[in-house]
Amino acid sequence: MKVAIISDIHGNFDAFQEVLADIDKSKVDRIVSLGDNIGYGPEPDRVIQKIMERDIPSVQGNHELAVKDEEYLNWFNPVARKSLIMTRELLSESSIQFVTELETFLTLDDCRYVHGFPPDSPLIYMFQASESRKKQIFEEIPQRLSFIGHTHTLEMIGYDGKIMEYIDLPQGITSLEGNKKYIINIGSVGQPRDTSNDAKYVIWDSSADTIEVRFISYDIAAVVQKIKVAGLPEDHANRLW
Predict the structure, then answer these.
(1) Strand ranges for the chain from DSSP E
(2) For domain 2-238, is the CATH number 3.60.21.10?
(3) pLDDT for the residue numbered 10
(4) What percent of the chain has pLDDT over 90?
(5) What residues contact 198, with CB distance under 8 A and at least 6 apart?
């Protein structure tokens, strides 16, 4: 089985379209989204409608959580909070219903899918969890692989029952070890925060036991202009470069 896993689209429909086009050429069996499909970007409704149209399973990210419950707006910095308030106004009723009904995690094919950190947090970043907490999660969760987003970066942790190993996740194919469990951070489609401004996603191949990281280029300038026209904070446009 081959599964394409995407995360943190953040209303960047241009990047999402290019990623979907690449996924469609890769002949995967399933696509799963790790949430934060909205926020920051100029076209959140188009993103959600496309996810619904393609019947892509998705979990709840922290941005969806803030649309569902406005009390969580206080979790965000002032610029992100302003963007989220504006984002809600850009969403149709059907999109709002969709994002507010998302679950905090999914389990499919011996994998756990969660936005922030296992078992089910949309808010906790992987770097915030202590070493003892990470080991506890590895030992308690039955699934061998946990896929997460939230930090917009690519990295993973392997655990053999005794030692945790922090592993870089570069572009291309990385082989997994059968005796290890993994937490895999898959980067961001719509707002990468690493050394490349390309959209990122991964393909998990269960037969080959590999993770393939795909870098996809898109028209950043067009998205920057859309953010400005929408009146969203320019910080979110500048981050794309």
Answers:
(1) 2-6, 30-33, 105-108, 111-114, 145-148, 154-159, 164-168, 172-175, 181-186, 199-205, 210-216
(2) yes
(3) 97
(4) 96
(5) 192, 215, 216, 217, 218
